[in-house]
Design brief:
about 180 residues, alpha+beta, Outer Surface Protein A, domain 3, 2 domains, 4-stranded antiparallel β-sheet, 2 helices, 13 strands
Amino acid sequence: MSRIAKNPIKISKDVECSFKEGIFYAKGKLGQMKISIDSKYDINIDQEVVKVIPINNINSDPNWGTTRANVANTIYGVTNGFSKTLELNGTGYRASVSGSKLKLELGYSHDINFNIPEDVKIECPKQNIIKLSSINKEKLGAAAAKIRSFRKPEPFKGKGIKYVDEYIFRKEGKKK
């Protein structure tokens, strides 16, 4: 029995939600999103509450809580948005945004040009800080993980791209 899925999702007055033919629509001050919902579930929309209800009263389905979380993330995304911050650690590591590309200098013999996805906004307030923001949590996480994969932090000196709130476990180097 899912405890998360039973909880209703509270919505504010500036969010418009609708559910038609298996697709949930949400429109807020930051934009609009739609997600497809599995045919096993129905969504009841009241004035201030959205509930995900299984059609056949199958309370043991593990996707029930996941569906509720996806709907909640969609509503939260169009009202507040999501953001992640990456930090570059290393001598000469730089990042800059030019147009729709993120230019990364990460100690390789060449620069890396990363095409910024449509729904994601990237800005570089400093040369070693990358701020990503989006209304879609899934695309934001995928873009941040892709940027981080270009130079993952290594455990000896801590050089690489890491999340700001991430702790890098340090190892001791060779001993003589």
